[in-house]
Amino acid sequence: MANVLRVLTRVMGWACVAIGLYHVLLGNAAIPGAGSAGPTIDSWGRFMGASFVGYGLAWLWAARQRPVPARAVRWLAGIFLLGGVGRLLSLAEHGRPHWFQIVLTVLELALPPVFFWLADAEERPRRGGTEAAAAGR
Fold first, then answer.
1. CA gap 112, 118 in Å, rounded
2. Nearest one of 85, 57, 87 to 72, comparing CA atoms
3. Residues 87, 33, 44: CA angle, nearest 5 degrees
4. Distances (CA, A) of 87 to 22, 77, 78, 84, 94
5. Which residues are CB-contacts of 84 (< 8 A; sequence separation ≥ 6)?
6. Residue 125: pLDDT above 70?
7. Which class for 13: exposed (0-12), middle (13-18), buried (19 or more C-beta within 10 A)?
8. Cα(first)–Cα(last) distance of the chain, in Å?
9. Per the structure, how many domains does the chain have?
């Protein structure tokens, strides 16, 4: 399970960095249906893209730690889940968005429980070993 956590954490980090850079570079053209949204939405989208790059870098930082810190994984997964909840609120208030946004919503709601479950996969064996060693003394 520890290897699965490490791989998923890296994939999440690189995906977020790539998506964020895509939005920074393309602005409105990166958002389905927003090509003519104007300069305000373009500015906001590029800013949010840069923020998403930072979010991806936080995932990559977590993936490089030994062990992968469960607390960081849970926080990062919680932020991702919050994004999915935001999309659900938008769906409820404004109706169905572009089909790709629905796919993203499903990912944002489905992946966090996986990360919550795997979060302490690397820390658990170390804690167990330490507790067992302490009990044996």
1. 10
2. 57
3. 65
4. 20, 16, 14, 5, 10
5. 105, 107, 108, 109, 112
6. no
7. buried
8. 29
9. 1
Which of 26-30, 82-86, 110-114 is predicted with the least confidence, judged by mean pLDDT? 26-30
pTM of the model: 0.85
Q: 135 falls in which pLDDT band (50, 70, 90)?
A: very low
> Domain range holding 71?
2-136
d(CA 32, CA 45): 12
**pLDDT, tens digit, for every residue of 60-83?**
999 999 999 999 999 999 999 999
In this structure, are residues 13 and 57 in contact, taking their beta carbons and an 8 Å threshold? yes
The residue among 104, 11, 118, 117 whose CA lies nearest residue 68 is 118
Is the N-terminal amide bond of 125 cis, ω within 30° of 0? no
Tokens encoding 121: 């996969």
Which pLDDT value is given to residue 127?
59
